[in-house]
Amino acid sequence: MSQGGSSNVIDGRRISQLVQEEVKLHVEQLKSEHGVEPGLAVLIIGDRTDSQVYVKHKVLACEKCGIRSVKVELGKETTQEEAERVVRELNGDSSIHGILVQLPIPEHLDEKKLLAEISFEKDVDGFHPTNIGLLAMRDRKALAQPCTPSGVMEILRREKVETKGAKAVVVGRSNIVGIPMALLLLKANATVEVVHSQTPRAELESAVKSADILVVAAGKAGLVDGSWIKEGSVVIDVGMNSIPDASKKNGYRLVGDVQYDEAAKRAKLITPVPGGVGPMTVAMLMHNTEGGRRVASLT
Ligand code: NAD
Question: Which residues form the Tetrahydrofolate dehydrogenase/cyclohydrolase NAD(P)-binding domain (predicted)?
């Protein structure tokens, strides 16, 4: 089956567009009713071309939503003290409502320590231990939730996927995708199973076979066999893997972690790669930056 066009294929670009249009409206309201212009500071350390591309997308999305963005660039030799000082300055700047550090940062820097310097009220990535702690607790709410998993929840909500009582399986347990994904699904009353690199393959297979909602974030092309997908389930493929493809001008193409063609025959709904979860991440970053509750707590 080809990606796109089919009725069971989730159009992440369209949903991302809708989210950004809503953000734009909220930003206009914040400006006209409260005189607040949300501001996002993006800190980029070093000279990685891929990071520059990601940051460019974020800055463009800000422009589209009416959010002021400030790009702070530091050289690859920047010291830990210098990077932390810049973050503290941004913490104290009342025109900045969100701060994000573009990852990865150069190896000589301590990522955990740097991220923990961001005040949790300005943590638009939702990675701060306080925000993750709030996310993990019942009846508590993080000020911002990690963008990729909350993008998945937004897809499920807009596609009217029932999470209550559903069996959800999350493949992967990273701090930025798998763990917060499992917590969000749990909060949405799903019964959640998390499988990871240490899970025996037979258990990975049986978990996938049992999933009403499957979210895969392993970063392994084709890890999930399409024939394992439960008939009528919802398949969300977060994986983004470049594989060689001589027919492409740049010599490669992007694929997910799920063997798409076979999976798409069985799933009720499925996200393609690219064009599924990917576009949602930036949209949710915009949502987090505008996030009324957080911005209000800062003004
Ligand atoms: P990560 O490398 O930090 O974590 C991968 C996780 O997958 C680990 O927890 C590991 O235990 C698990 N895993 C690895 N091999 C496995 C296997 N054989 N069986 C079961 N589990 C296995 O990666 P990440 O940052 O969580 O990202 C995962 C994927 O999602 C990557 O392809 C990444 O590019 C993609 N991603 C996409 C977006 C987006 O916006 N669409 C955002 C973030 C990450």
Answer: 146-289
pLDDT tens digits, the chain, 299 residues: what are they?
445 557 899 999 999 999 999 999 999 998 998 888 999 999 999 999 999 999 999 999 999 999 999 999 999 999 999 999 999 999 999 999 999 999 999 999 999 999 999 999 999 999 999 999 999 999 999 999 999 999 999 999 999 999 999 999 999 999 999 999 999 999 999 999 999 999 999 999 999 999 999 999 999 999 999 999 999 999 999 999 999 999 999 999 999 999 999 999 999 999 999 999 999 999 999 999 998 555 656 55
Active site residues: 58, 102, 125
3-state secondary structure of 181: helix
**Separation of CA 258 and ligand 1 centre (Å):** 12
List the beta bridge partners of residue 70. 41
d(CA 233, CA 170): 13
Cα separation values, 214 from 14, 202, 239, Å: 21, 16, 12
Return the structure tokens found at 210: 């049992």
The closest-lying atom of ligand 1 relative to the alpha carbon of residue 151 is: 40
Question: Per CATH, the architecture of 146-278 is what?
Answer: 3-Layer(aba) Sandwich (3.40)
What's the gap in Å between 174 CA and the centre of ligand 1?
7
Measured from CB, residues less than 6 Å from any atom of ligand 1 are: 148, 171-174, 176-178, 195-197, 199, 204, 217-220, 223, 238-241, 277-278, 281
Signed CA dihedral, 287, 292, 294, 295: sign only: positive
